[in-house]
Fold:
Amino acid sequence: MKLKQGMVTSKVGRQHVLIPTGEVHFHGVVRSNPTAAFIIEQLKSDTSEEKIVDAMLAEYDAPREQIAQDVHKVIEQLREQGFLDE
Structure:
């Protein structure tokens, strides 16, 4: 899975944003915290939920179970909005 083509990410000051363009039918900007932004960055290339969890474990000091829950939650939110190619 990965972000659909036309999804633009940016950091504006301390705020992380995701701007859907192109084929995604969403008008607006999605703001995210640093953890969600990290997950979104991983989704710029084809990956899996498990690989994202592994990447987060290398970056953050948290239990695997908690990281896996956080990754799953963010991916489900992106999926619901139609932002992912599966």
